[in-house]
């Protein structure tokens, strides 16, 4: 999707503000010879930005306006190395709340709702984002924060909370607890709004069924405001995103080139009006696609498909992008098969095609040959790849403490 004329002007303004500042990106842009953005071509010449940049600029190197304009910072937890600090101006905080309120509205939440907020408050952007959006909308916030399940359920019952906001893993825990205690008839929940971490269809179906609520995935990341830059509408899985605040490109992770609408690739986000820490062409490593055409709901904002995985985990066979999560998702439907598997990918030079060998584990009670056939047909019909499948007894594949390396690509060797 190309920049429209309004977005083009906004990006040009952002880039010029960055250039005029003594910030980290001001220097990078000057070195790269960036002067402004008059066309899509100009824009696509601007170097990508990344989380590594933000770490290098720690703590406040990416701040563009003077200190007196900054009202708050947030930080994304660094699992490796230094954390990332994002400064916000008053307008940034307001804009984020406006976007978040729009997310609630898209999910059909109204002023009459009571929103129980269970994500954490503090340095990260979750709890406070859910709360600011709730207040902007005019609904009642029940600001619980995470944990303390007894109190959580007590408040949910006594205050008749109608909307649950949570991480999907915490929502699952609450659903299980409500089920275990047999208190569903005392719960008034109608909707669940969950951070769009990747979660399995199985988990989704369980929460939907046990709590009898509509589920919504909210998208966002700390580097770009926080959660709230997009959400799915009722009955749809794709998420509308707010293109008056962010511009989204989908790129080929390897080449960095834009891919046509509808094709899968890495989400790259540009903030259009952010003041404190504007980001141009920020690589998220999230994989999705722009869903072409208009949404049946009538909302004019463009759509991103469900986040499929991380580009770091992606592998390609016969030109088809695949993720370990997809393999897990498929295998869990096969009777007797464990969650352990291994994939070897090689290139057959003679036939000039990729070969995918899948080793799966199965319990002794099932027929290994039949199971291998079921898995092969399933891959063929669901993802158009026909692997060579070997089924071995449970316990055969190596177990490691660390995240097991399940995909071995011999083509890179
Ligand atoms: Zn829609």
The count of DSSP E runs of length 2 or more, i.e. the number of strands, is 21
Q: Low-confidence parts, pLDDT < 50 over ≥5 residues?
A: none
Relative strand content:
25-35%
Strand order within the widest beta sheet = 4-3-5-6-7-8-9-14-13
Total of DSSP H or I helical runs spanning 4+ residues: 11
Enumerate the distinct ligands.
zinc ion
- Binned, the helix content reads 25-40%
Cα shape: globular
Overall residue-averaged pLDDT value? 93
Radius of gyration: 23 Å
Largest sheet: 9 strands, mixed
Q: Distance N terminus to C terminus? A: 36 Å
The SS-based structural class is: alpha/beta
Secondary-structure map with pairings?
Elements: H1 5-20, H2 24-31, H3 40-45, H4 51-56, E1 70-76, E2 84-89, H5 90-106, E3 114-117, H6 126-137, E4 140-143, H7 149-158, E5 163-166, H8 168-181, E6 191-195, H9 201-211, E7 214-221, E8 226-232, E9 239-241, E10 246-251, E11 265-271, E12 282-288, E13 290-291, E14 303-304, E15 309-310, E16 315-317, E17 320-322, H10 324-331, E18 337-348, E19 353-362, H11 368-383, E20 388-393, E21 407-409
Parallel strand pairs: 3-4, 3-5, 5-6, 6-7, 18-21, 19-20
Antiparallel strand pairs: 1-2, 7-8, 8-9, 9-14, 10-11, 11-12, 12-15, 13-14, 16-17, 18-19
Helix pairs in contact: 1-2, 5-6, 8-9
Bound molecules: zinc ion.
Summarize, please.
This protein is of the alpha/beta class. It has helices spanning 5-20, 24-31, 40-45, 51-56, 90-106, 126-137, 149-158, 168-181, 201-211, 324-331, 368-383; strands at residues 70-76, 84-89, 114-117, 140-143, 163-166, 191-195, 214-221, 226-232, 239-241, 246-251, 265-271, 282-288, 290-291, 303-304, 309-310, 315-317, 320-322, 337-348, 353-362, 388-393, 407-409.
């Amino acid at each position: 999707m190309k920049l429209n004329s309004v977005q083009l002007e906004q990006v040009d303004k952002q880039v010029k503000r960055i250039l005029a500042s003594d910030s980290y990106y001001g220097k990078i842009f000057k070195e790269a010879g960036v002067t402004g953005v008059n066309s899509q071509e100009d824009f696509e010449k601007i170097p990508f930005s990344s989380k590594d940049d933000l770490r290098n600029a720690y703590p406040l190197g990416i701040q563009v306006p003077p200190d007196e304009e900054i009202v708050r910072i947030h930080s994304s937890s660094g699992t490796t190395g230094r954390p990332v600090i994002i400064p916000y101006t008053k307008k940034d905080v307001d804009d984020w709340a406006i976007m978040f309120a729009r997310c609630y509205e898209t999910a059909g939440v109204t002023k009459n709702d009571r929103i129980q907020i269970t994500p954490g408050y503090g340095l990260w952007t979750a709890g406070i984002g859910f709360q600011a959006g709730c207040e902007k909308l005019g609904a009642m916030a029940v600001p619980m924060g995470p944990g303390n399940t007894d109190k959580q359920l007590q408040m949910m019952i006594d205050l008749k909370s109608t909307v649950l906001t949570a991480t999907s893993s915490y929502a699952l825990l609450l659903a299980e607890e409500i089920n275990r205690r047999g208190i569903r008839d005392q719960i008034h929940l109608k909707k669940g709004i969950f951070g769009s971490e990747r979660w399995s269809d199985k988990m989704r179906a369980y929460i939907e069924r046990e709590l009898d609520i509509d589920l919504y995935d909210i998208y966002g990341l700390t580097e770009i405001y926080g959660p709230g830059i997009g959400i799915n509408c009722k009955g749809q899985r794709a998420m509308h995103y707010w293109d008056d605040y962010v511009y989204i490109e989908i790129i080929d992770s390897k080449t960095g080139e834009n891919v046509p609408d509808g094709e899968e690739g890495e989400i790259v986000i540009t903030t259009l009006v952010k003041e404190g820490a504007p980001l141009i062409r920020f690589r998220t490593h999230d994989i999705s696609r722009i869903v072409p055409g208009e949404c049946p709901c009538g909302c004019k904002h463009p759509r991103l498909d469900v986040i499929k995985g991380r580009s770091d985990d992606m592998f390609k066979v016969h030109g088809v992008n695949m993720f370990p999560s997809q393999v897990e998702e498929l295998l869990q439907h096969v009777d007797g098969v464990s969650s352990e598997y291994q994939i070897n990918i090689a290139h057959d030079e003679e036939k000039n095609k990729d070969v995918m060998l899948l080793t799966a584990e199965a319990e002794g009670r099932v027929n290994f040959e039949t199971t291998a056939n079921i898995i092969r047909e399933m891959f063929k019909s669901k993802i158009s790849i026909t692997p060579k499948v070997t089924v071995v007894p449970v316990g055969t594949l190596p177990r490691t403490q660390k995240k097991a390396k399940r995909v071995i690509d011999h083509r890179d060797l």
